[in-house]
Amino acid sequence: MSGRKAPGKARAGARTRLTALAPGARFPTGLRVGPLRDGAFRGRLHDARTAVSVGRLAGCALVTCFVTGLVSHYLQQPPGWAVDALPSRPVWGYRVTQGLHVACGIAAIPLVLAKLWTVYPRLFAWPPLRSVAHALERLSIAVLVAVTLLQLATGLLNTAQWYPWPWNFRPAHWALAWVMVGALALHIAVKAPVIAAHWGRRSPGTLRLPAADGPDRRAFLATVGAAVGAVTLTTAGQSFTPLKDLDVLAPRHPDHGPQHLPVNRTAAAAGISPARLAGYRLSVRGPRPYELSLEQLRALPQHSVVLPVACVEGWSENAHWSGVRIRDLLDHAGAPRGATLRVVSLQKGGAYSVMEMGAHYARDPLTLLALRLNGAPLSLDHGFPARIIAPNRPGVLQTKWVATLEVLT
Q1: Residue, of 263 and 218, whose pLDDT is higher
Q2: DSSP state letter for 351
């Protein structure tokens, strides 16, 4: 009998537990263990001032990614009304915006992780849902965190051209970007009073916590800054060539590849072989259609330009190109001045085997049907016998192995 509780005491204990867990009652302190207990998280690194300091940097990186991503999307796949309106200047425009897009995306990874570390104790706040408004706020935060982490992770894998998922990356990345920026805007609106109270070092709402509560905030922010600097310095060289000697973590080096220029899709991957190119002739379709052999193309007036190839994965590099101006080929075909050009490649399949070029690009004096790269004939991987090179264009639109130029009126 000594190991059994008296019936009266057992019933009283059950009533205590039921009363404590009844709706609206306080969760018993004795049952709140681990991260749910009062005072489970302490230290100045989890205070609002630190969260705001890291959060504003992470927010700037994400907004920059979103804006430059818009530029990349509309240059890669412009709506019909914009095809003839997109500018061909500055010649380095896409190189800068896409390099910034990828660099900010990589820099955002340690910033977002640091931001999450400063606020994660609040995930265990009790009660988890205090009202309908509080439930909606937490739901918006869950969406923001999930979408941001997925966006950054898949974007990083895209720079290495590794796609271990069943969906198409580009439309998914585009859709997630809008969800992410919408959730971020909502989060900023909800947290605006807290952000304003802790924005500056001497803001009225800033709490002055004792230094003994944990590692110094400045040391933490310096560590985060060092992490951002490290990943930036070791990856940005793939597009910002003064840093190319430090380019040890990026999947591409701007000087590595055939003819000292990287390639994303090889001739073998595109189904191009020397046998397929035998008897090559360029077909130009317009009011006065004609065809040219490679020898005839080489006999036309040749022009030289220095233009970058800038790829969506973030790498870019300047190169010397020579060939025939596209506008000269169009004039010979009797193309109207404002005509759009359709370019068809010999490659088998692929999302960009057919490409349209607006009049600003087609008529630009720097836009070439290139036959030579860095002083030598194009290699097979770089588009032999002829490829497009144009200013301020994504690399996927610099079509290789060109078979047909078609004037669209």
Answers
A1: 263
A2: T
Q: Which residue, among 247, 297, 235, has the nearest Cα to 105 in the 3D structure?
A: 235
Q: Is 361 in contact with 390 (CB distance < 8 Å)?
A: yes
Q: Give strand pairing partners of 373.
A: 321, 376
Signed CA dihedral, 359, 365, 371, 377: sign only: negative
Average pLDDT of span 263-277: 95
pLDDT digits (tens, 9 = 90+) for 288-347: 999 999 999 999 999 999 999 999 999 999 999 999 999 999 999 999 999 999 999 999
234 and 314 part of one domain? no
Q: Are 354 and 408 in contact (CB under 8 A)?
A: no
Domain final residue, candidates 209, 227, 246: 246
Q: What is the pLDDT of residue 3?
A: 46
Do 59 and 154 lie in a common domain?
Answer: yes
Provide the pLDDT for residue 47: 83
| 168: its two tokens | 């198409």
Give residues with Cβ within 8 angstroms of 387, minimum separation 6: 369, 370, 378, 398, 399, 400, 401, 402
For residue 240, give both structure tokens: 């910002």
Q: Is residue 7 part of a domain?
A: no
Neighbours of 32 (CB within 10 A): 15
Of 314, 387, 400, the closest CA to residue 353 belongs to 400
- Nearby residues of 274 by Cβ (< 8 Å), 6 or more positions away: 380
pLDDT above 80 for 28:
no
Pair 45, 215: CB distance under 8 Å: yes
CB 83 within 8 A of CB 358: yes
Burial class from Cβ neighbours inside 10 Å (0-12, 13-18, 19+) for residue 57 reads: buried
Do 332 and 187 share a domain, yes or no?
Answer: no
Sole residue written with tokens 């605006």: 192
Please answer whether residues 359 and 327 qualify as being in contact, where contact means their C-beta atoms are separated by less than 8 angstroms.
no
Which residue, 148, 188, 168, is CA-closest to 65?
Answer: 148
| Boundaries of domain holding 282 | 274-408
Q: What are phi and psi of 255, to 5 degrees?
A: -100, -5
CA 60 from chain centre, in angstroms, equals 14
Sheet arrangement for strand 290-293: 290-293, 281-285, 402-408, 340-345, 354-357
